[in-house]
Amino acid sequence: MRKNQKLQFTSTRLCDCPANHLNCMSAKEWIKAQLGVWQFAYEGRDIRDKQIHPATYPIALARKVIELFTHKGEVVLDPFVGSGTTLVAALDTSRNAAGFDINTPYVQFCERRLTQIKKAAQEENVCSDRTQQIPLRADARHISGYLEEGSIALVMTSPPYANLLNRRRLNKSRRGGDRKNQQYLKVEQYSQDPNDLGTLGLDHYIAAMQEIFAGILPLLRPRGHCVINVADMWWENQRIPIHVHVVKALTEIGYELRNTIIWDRTNIVNRAGIFGWPSNYITMGVTFEYLLDFWRPH
Fold it and tell me: Strand locations in the chain, DSSP E?
């Protein structure tokens, strides 16, 4: 697809919900979703191999966000699509979706992953709907050339964490023999493309995030939500509060922070190592991440 060739989605709702409803949830489901700390389990279709992608989240996480902030048939955007988890969740929930990534192998993997899931559904005689899930190889800075203003109901993504992963992995969060696994001393970085946010220092990273999300803001419908999954990092014995920088960056360009949700990962962390004992108390970043929920105000 050429740059500035608009994606064509049939984005009308495929449900009978009242016009003023945020989603298709029942009152009982809504009450459960109000809890501010979320836990998820992985399933067989989840990508957990760091050789494929160094930072993935469960399909269940993306599915919950999509079901919370959209209706069936509406459009979801992931500007850093990676292994395609957001698009898989959109397929599962009958939402249209567009995913962008600067890394060609990720886009190709995402295409294969979606094709395999659709093929398996056909073999099981699961009826398909009219929705589309489209991965594209493009810089997130150029997304406005592919989508119409006000056409997006939800942005769901997990962006790179500046250049903080662009270093040799020491596996300090692992214990015993697990420490020197296949990731030990490897650089788990998305790419070394100079346009990749994962190669940028923190100040340039925040500037790039502002540029990207300023371009996305007009694509969101009024009160459309934007959920960003981020974790804080440690660098040279200092905590880097990435979530604080992201909140500041997005609110400065017109987004409004609505909710902060904690993704509690303790149920999926095994054999955690010891940090700082006995003199330097450090909470383990691997045990939780932030889901920052913004929207486009009227």
Answer: 37-38, 75-78, 96-101, 133-137, 152-157, 220-230, 233-235, 238-240, 256-264, 288-295
- Number of structural domains (the chain) is 1
Burial track 95-118 (b if 16+ CB lie within 10 A, e otherwise): bbbbbbbbbeebbebbbebbeebe
| Contact residues for 48 (Cβ-Cβ < 8 A; gap 6+) | 42, 56
What Å distances lie between residue 114 and 63, 78, 120, CA to CA? 15, 15, 10
Of residues 297, 150, 157, 155, the one with CA closest to residue 220: 150
Give the pair of three-digit tokens for residue 56: 């993935």
Distance CA 290, CA 288 (A): 7
Is the residue at 279 inside a domain?
Answer: no
User: Is 6 within the bounds of a domain?
Assistant: no
d(CA 196, CA 26): 40
Start-to-end CA distance of the chain, whole Å, equals 32
Q: What is the pLDDT of residue 53?
A: 60
Flag whether 294 is in a domain. Answer: no
Does 176 score more than 70 pLDDT? no
Mean pLDDT of 126-142: 87
CA 193 to chain centre: 20
Q: Name the pLDDT band for 65 (thresholds 50, 70, 90).
A: very high
Radius of gyration of the chain (CA): 19
The residue type found at 18 is: P
Preceding amide of 18 cis, omega within 30: no
**Phi then psi for 30, rounded to 5 degrees?**
-60, -45
Whole domain around residue 249: which residue ranges? 43-168+185-260
Q: Are 77 and 219 in contact (CB under 8 A)?
A: yes
Strand partners, 288: 264
